[in-house]
Amino acid sequence: MATTKKTATKKDSKAAGSAKAEKGAKADAKGADGKRKLGLRGAAPWAARHAAKHAAEARARAAEPPLPGSARATIRVPQGAEDIKQKIGELHNALTQIKGFRKNLTKNFYEVGDILREVQARKLYVAKGYGTFEAFLEREIDFGKTTALRLVKVVSTFLKEAAQEHGMERVMNALIALETVAEGQSGSGSKSDAPKVPPPPMSSPSLPMKPPGR
Q1: Residue 133, burial from CB neighbour count under 10 angstroms (0-12, 13-18, 19+)
Q2: Cα 184 to Cα 177, 192, 195, distances in angstroms
Q3: Is residue 59 part of a domain?
Q4: 37 lies in some domain
Q5: Are residues 195 and 132 in contact, defined by beta-carbon separation less than 8 angstroms?
Q6: What would the mean pLDDT of 151-173 be, rounded to a whole number?
Q7: Which domain holds residue 115?
Q8: Rounded Cα–Cα distance for residues 111 and 152 (Å)
C-alpha cells in the first residue's frame, strides 16, 4: 500500500513539473506586456521567411519568357502600347484645340481644318478604336461630319491667307461650286449638259456658321 502511494506521488510530481515547464515556455514566448512575440509586421518569424522565399521564386518566374499561349503571356503589355498611348494623347490634344477654336469657327475655320487633316493623315483616330475617319467625325466632332470634311478640303485646296481673307462662308461656297462642277463633268455623258443649280448658301440653318447664341 505504501509503495502504491509513493508511485502516485511521483506521477503527480512529474505531471506538476511538465505543467510548470509548459507554462514557462509559454511565458518565454510572450513579451513583457503579456503578448505573443511576433516577427516583422506582426507575423511569426517563419512567415517572413516563407514570404521572402515565395517573392524570390516569383521574381525568378517573371524574369523567364512566358510560354506561348500561357495565361501569363496574355496579360503582358501588348506590342506597340507606348505608340498607342502617345497617339491617344495627341488625339486628345487635337480635340481640345478644336473645342477651343469651335467657339469662333468662322474665324478659326482654317486652323480647325488643318488639325483635322493632321488627324486624318496620321490616322490618330485608329488609336481610339475608330475604323474610319468619317466614323470619328460623326462621334467626336459636334459641328457635323459634312462640315468637317469640307474644312479638310479647304485646307488642301486654298492657301491660308486667301481663305482667311475671303472668310469661311465664301470659301465653303466656292468649294461646293467646285464639287458641283466636278460632279457635272463626271456625269455629263448620261445626263443633260445643263449646268446644275448650286446648293443654298452655307449660312442656312442646316449648317450654322456661328455657334449658338452669337
Answers
A1: buried
A2: 11, 9, 7
A3: no
A4: no
A5: no
A6: 91
A7: 81-186
A8: 10
How is residue 206 written as a grid cell? 442646316
Question: What amino acid occupies position 61?
Answer: R
* pLDDT of the residue at 42: 55
In a domain, 134, yes or no: yes
- Is residue 21 in some structural domain? no
- Could you give the number of structural domains in the chain? 1
**Residue of 207, 211, 202 whose CA lies nearest to 104:** 211
pLDDT of residue 212: 46
Residue 203 predicted with pLDDT over 90: no
DSSP code at position 201: P
State how far the alpha carbon of 146 is from the alpha carbons of 47, 116, 135, 150, in Å. 67, 13, 12, 6
What is the pLDDT of the chain when averaged over all its residues? 73
What's the burial of 41, exposed, middle or buried (CB within 10 Å: 0-12/13-18/19+)? exposed
Residue 149 has pLDDT above 90, yes or no: yes
Whole-angstrom distance, CA of residue 171 vs CA of residue 177:
10
Residues 158, 64: Cα–Cα separation, whole Å: 57
Q: Which residue has the higher pLDDT, 5 or 113?
A: 113
Q: Using CA atoms, how far apart are residues 58 and 72, in angstroms rounded to an integer?
A: 12
